[in-house]
């Protein structure tokens, strides 16, 4: 009746009859603040075709209102006015009638609101819940993240989605709202991937860390291991080199245990060359949760799931980045003048004659005669200041309820910083299809792989040690080319190979290789009945590494200016060509039953039974020929027939294992898990071959107890968990030593050494004594952890303490057989060791106005100790203390404690003997050592532990992420401490024998005030006095050359901007983000002269770490 009455009043007021309809589609842009409604109406009539009708006696036209809209429909404008005036209205075509009665029409109290929900990366969220707070009125987002909902004018929208923090948005008259969801660090409903399955994070009892693929892509380095640095506590990687395509696997581990097992889509596979854009998630199993993978998972497991298709329209995503690479640090060498001056000084210090006259030194200083007195900067001649790197990825995903797909193509082109055709190219592809065949049966098909192309000069590779040794060692007073003629590379007998020539593939040779990896897999999943599923999985992996290396016979030259002749010097007399192929085939089969159900809403039960069988076939063949000419054609059949060699081998490895696991959760707060692995290995006797290895874990969600809810209402989650597991290992066992076998012996001497009638032949010999009792050595891991979060996930933490003990580690008894037996002793299960440490992660998520802020930090500490260690009996008490490794920490450095530098000859002669020559070889400035045992002699008996090892015990990372109105920033710090950096490379001022160059830092050394006057005073410096061949006293490993090191790297900083969607929709683009990234731009450390992650003994003598400045774009259609 009220609606009828309102309509009648409106008819009488306006003098004509018109019925209620929706407003027209004209758009209004208006901005007025506290203006009389009369003026506002006039303005609307001026800018539109609408005309107003009202009774001035019943409507206060002088009342002031505020309206601020852009491209809004007329209904929205009128609602804003009506709410402030307390009136109502009706619309007929372009005519608007105002009434003094408040609006009560339901249609006029509500409006249609539309919008888009995206995640923190701007990707549309499918299936997010959008509802009016306090009502059941709601909807879900479609495949593009869009929604449309009719809501009251003053409604508050609630937006929720699993894994993200809920948001509330006040409508306040808006007709469009776009929402960006922030990740919920609490994520109790999140499902994480574990061994052969998934589990809820809330009820997980193992030490499992997770990363999303988007987080990995934030630091998109070619080597996937580098993308993990600082992000996961306990995962350690010492990035010692930036050489394209090189993987430093020996410096990658979890908790210091050793290199972990990597599982990609259910199969053991390498992962360093995977394109980060293909990865959906990465989960790291660090405790007994890895036990289901058996001996392969003894050092922890990294599980990678690649991206799968989504139920959506086809989406095309393209990413591109281009970067400029440059060395992080370079240890500078002397120029020609410095070299001549300080080499003279070193010779004079040793009582020898000067190498260069004063006139020659002056010519090097002035550079007045560069042909005869050159100054060559070998580093600048061979190393570029910057080198480009570019990366592309194109992928498409989508699908329906019946079939979903993901296809990806990637390309990486990384050039070397060397001035040569050294480069690394990688081509990636990935295809994942999931199809629902029937309501109970679905299939998963996956294909993937990559092709890696390496092109190197012959004298590079192996982290560039040989090349960079030549760069640092060659004297700077010799030219690149004889007589500056580029047809003649210069070299003298007293120098290393010419570094510029080493980079010339035509002159000195090349190393090329192509690695092809292909994998395919098929899985069938069948639901037998509710809760019980069967799965059959088959995978095939193929790898082939093809190498071709050509070392060219080459001649170098010196130039005789008097005779105007080039004099040849042969450095590489014979050429050599090697070709090698290494095909590798592996099949993996898994058959499993999985039961999962909930009883009475309290008892969650899940059980898994799985059989796994793996078979690997390896085969390699190598052929080599030598060449007596310098113009050799790089083909095997062009080599000398009298100088050829070949070898090869093949092997088959088979492993089988039975896996079982039972999980039980009561009321969502008490958890228990039992698992086992029954593994077999070909390396042991049949009765020792199979081992049973169990694991148990339990958890208690204390936060679910009522007393805790009452005590700490701010707490969202507090979970105590513990695990123990036993894993067998055979990786260090020699194969088939349970039987006494035979092996081939090359160049076997018949008749005895030194016998003129002896002959050399190939033959066979008994390989070993049999040990039928050799068996698995066992690794037992205990882990205790505590997880918590507060205030809706705004603050969270995870803490773990672990202890691991290894028993029965294989070793050979310290007993010898008579040499006439010719048989070595077999391995036995003798040694033992342990590891211990802790990990702590802290995180906070805040929303301050329009700013979303996330901070995550982690720290991890781990050390290893030998327990029992088979070794020779010590000769005396000191030897027992010095050499007995039993019950002693590993990763330590032994050496001398230095107590300063000698200040005078008197001090030298009145100090303990430390050169074995009555101190006669010592000079003022030489390093002085502590006589620990007080016997007046500095020798090996005075060594002590002077530091930790070269691999850090303590590692940490800090991530800062924020976004504001389309702008985003992501900063990653990474660092380490509790390790010792030993500057072995600097212990001698000049590199190697002959004419080797000198380190510039050694110019600050003890020296005579006038090196031409042997009686002049010694002038103190930082380093000892210069010697040509170095000095045995000063080169001893001591605290003088060690640093208790630490470093903090700004590992990555990325700043991006996402273009607003309303600007992109007109050109058919759904998402567009541009960004700039800096990798390794800053390092803070107490390590002087070299990079804090440098390889011990080779500081600055290898391909250096890189800093990279990149620009990129991510676009979706």
From TrEMBL:
It comes from the Bacteria. Residues 50-101 form the Secretin/TonB short N-terminal domain. Keywords: Cell outer membrane, Membrane, Signal, Transmembrane, Transmembrane beta strand, Transport. Its main location: membrane. It is a multi-pass membrane protein. SMART domains: STN. One of its GO terms (cellular component) is cell outer membrane. It is found in: Cell outer membrane. Residues 1-19 form the signal peptide. The keyword Transport applies. InterPro entries: Beta-barrel_TonB_sf, CarboxyPept-like_regulatory, Plug_dom, Plug_dom_sf, Secretin/TonB_short_N, TonB-dep_OMP_SusC/RagA, TonB-dep_OMP_SusC/RagA_CS, TonB-dep_rcpt-like. Belongs to the TonB-dependent receptor family. This is SusC/RagA family TonB-linked outer membrane protein. It comes from Parabacteroides distasonis.
């Amino acid at each position: 009746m009220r609606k009828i009455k309102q309509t009648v009043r409106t008819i009488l007021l306006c003098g004509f009859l018109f019925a209620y309809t929706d407003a027209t589609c004209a758009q209004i842009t208006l901005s007025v603040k506290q203006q009389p409604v009369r003026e506002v109406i006039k303005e609307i009539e001026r800018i539109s075709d609408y005309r107003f009708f009202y009774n001035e006696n019943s409507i206060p036209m002088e009342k002031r209102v505020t309206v601020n809209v852009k491209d809004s429909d007329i209904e929205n404008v009128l609602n804003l006015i009506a709410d402030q005036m307390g009136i109502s209205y009706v619309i007929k075509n372009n005519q608007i009638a105002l009434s003094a009665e408040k609006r009560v029409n339901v249609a006029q109290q509500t409006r249609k609101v539309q919008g888009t929900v995206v995640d923190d990366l701007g990707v549309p969220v499918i299936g997010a819940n959008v509802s009016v707070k306090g009502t059941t009125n709601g909807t879900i987002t479609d495949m593009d993240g869009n929604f449309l909902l009719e809501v009251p004018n003053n409604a508050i929208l609630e937006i929720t989605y699993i894994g993200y923090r809920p948001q509330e948005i006040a409508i306040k008259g808006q007709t469009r709202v776009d929402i960006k969801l922030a990740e919920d660090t609490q994520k109790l409903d999140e499902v994480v991937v574990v061994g052969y399955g998934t589990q809820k994070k809330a009820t997980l009892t193992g030490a499992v860390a997770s990363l999303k693929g988007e987080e990995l892509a934030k630091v998109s380095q070619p080597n996937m291991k580098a993308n993990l640095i600082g992000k996961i506590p306990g995962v350690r990687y010492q990035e010692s080199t930036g050489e394209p395509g090189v993987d430093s696997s020996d410096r990658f581990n979890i908790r210091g245990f050793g290199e972990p097992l990597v599982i990609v889509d259910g199969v053991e596979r390498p992962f360093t060359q995977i394109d980060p854009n293909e990865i959906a998630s990465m989960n790291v199993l660090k405790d007994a949760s890895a036990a289901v993978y058996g001996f392969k998972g003894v050092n922890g497991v990294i599980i990678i799931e690649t991206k799968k298709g989504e139920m959506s329209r086809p989406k095309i995503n393209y990413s591109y980045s281009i970067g400029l690479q440059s060395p992080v640090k370079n240890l500078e060498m002397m120029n020609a003048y410095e070299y001549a001056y300080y080499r003279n000084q070193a010779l004079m210090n040793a009582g020898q004659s000067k190498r260069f006259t004063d006139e020659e030194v002056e010519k090097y200083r002035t550079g007045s005669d560069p042909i005869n007195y050159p100054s060559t900067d070998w580093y600048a001649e061979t190393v570029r200041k910057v080198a480009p790197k570019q990366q592309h990825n194109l992928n498409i995903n989508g699908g329906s309820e019946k079939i979903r797909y993901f296809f990806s193509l990637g390309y990486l082109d990384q050039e070397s910083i060397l001035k040569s055709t050294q480069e690394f190219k990688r081509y990636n592809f990935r295809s994942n299809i999931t199809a629902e065949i029937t309501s109970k049966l679905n299939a998963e098909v996956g294909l993937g792989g990559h092709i890696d192309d390496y092109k190197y000069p012959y004298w590079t590779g192996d982290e560039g040690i040989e090349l960079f040794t030549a760069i640092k060692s060659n004297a700077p007073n010799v030219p690149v080319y004889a007589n500056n003629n580029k047809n003649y590379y210069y070299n003298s007998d007293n120098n290393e190979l010419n570094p510029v020539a080493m980079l010339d593939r035509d002159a000195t040779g090349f190393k090329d290789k192509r690695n092809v990896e292909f994998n395919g897999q098929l899985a069938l999943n069948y639901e037998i009945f509710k809760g019980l599923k069967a799965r059959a999985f088959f995978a095939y992996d193929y790898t082939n590494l093809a190498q071709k290396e050509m070392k060219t016979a080459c001649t170098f030259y010196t130039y005789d200016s008097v005779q105007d002749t080039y004099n040849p010097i042969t450095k590489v007399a014979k050429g050599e060509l090697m070709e090698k192929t290494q095909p590798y085939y592996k099949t993996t089969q898994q058959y499993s039953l999985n039961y999962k159900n909930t009883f009475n809403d309290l008892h969650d039960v899940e059980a898994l039974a799985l059989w796994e069988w793996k078979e690997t076939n390896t085969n390699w063949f190598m052929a080599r020929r030598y060449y007596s000419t310098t113009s050799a054609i790089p083909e095997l059949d062009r080599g000398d027939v009298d100088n050829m060699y070949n070898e090869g081998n093949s092997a088959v490895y088979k492993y089988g294992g039975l896996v079982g696991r039972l999980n039980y959760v009561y009321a969502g707060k008490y958890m228990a898990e039992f698992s086992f692995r029954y593994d077999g290995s070909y390396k042991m006797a049949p009765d020792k071959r199979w081992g049973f290895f169990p694991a148990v874990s339990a958890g208690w969600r204390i936060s679910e107890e009522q007393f805790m809810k009452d005590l700490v209402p701010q707490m969202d989650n507090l979970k105590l968990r513990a695990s123990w597991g036993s894993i067998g290992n055979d990786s260090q066992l020699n194969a088939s030593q349970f039987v006494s076998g035979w092996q081939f012996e090359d160049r076997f001497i018949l008749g005895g050494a030194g016998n003129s009638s002896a002959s050399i032949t190939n033959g066979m010999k008994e390989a070993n004594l049999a040990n039928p009792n050799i068996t698995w050595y066992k690794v037992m891991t205990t882990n205790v952890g505590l997880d918590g979060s507060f205030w809706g996930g705004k603050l969270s933490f995870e803490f773990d303490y672990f202890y691991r003990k290894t028993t029965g580690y294989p070793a050979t008894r310290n007993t010898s057989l008579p040499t006439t037996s010719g048989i070595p002793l077999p391995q036995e299960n003798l040694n033992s060791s342990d590891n211990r440490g802790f990990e702590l992660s802290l995180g906070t998520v805040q929303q301050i106005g329009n700013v979303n802020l996330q901070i995550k930090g982690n720290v991890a500490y781990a050390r290893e100790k030998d327990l029992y260690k088979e070794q020779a009996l010590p000769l005396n008490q000191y030897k027992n203390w010095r050499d007995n490794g039993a019950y002693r920490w590993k990763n330590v450095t032994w050496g001398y404690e230095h107590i300063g530098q000698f200040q005078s000859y008197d001090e030298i002669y009145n100090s303990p003997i430390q050169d074995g020559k009555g101190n006669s070889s010592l000079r003022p400035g030489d390093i002085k050592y502590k006589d620990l045992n007080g016997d007046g002699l500095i020798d090996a008996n005075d060594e002590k532990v002077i530091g930790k090892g070269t691999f850090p015990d303590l590692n940490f990372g800090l991530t800062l992420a924020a976004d504001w109105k389309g702008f985003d920033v992501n900063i990653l710090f990474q660092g380490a401490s509790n390790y010792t950096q030993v500057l072995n490379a600097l212990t001698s001022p000049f590199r190697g024998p002959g004419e080797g160059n000198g380190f510039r830092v050694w110019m600050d050394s003890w020296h005579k005030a006038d090196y031409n006057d042997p009686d002049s005073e010694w002038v103190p410096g930082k380093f000892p006095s210069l010697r040509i061949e170095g000095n045995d006293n000063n080169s001893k490993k001591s605290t003088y050359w060690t640093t208790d090191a630490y470093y903090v790297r700004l590992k990555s900083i990325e700043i991006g901007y996402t273009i607003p969607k309303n600007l992109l929709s007109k050109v058919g683009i759904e998402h567009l983000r541009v960004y700039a990234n800096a990798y390794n731009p800053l390092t803070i450390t107490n390590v002087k002269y070299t990079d804090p992650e440098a390889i011990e003994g080779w500081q600055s003598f290898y391909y250096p770490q890189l800093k990279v400045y990149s620009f990129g774009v991510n676009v979706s259609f």
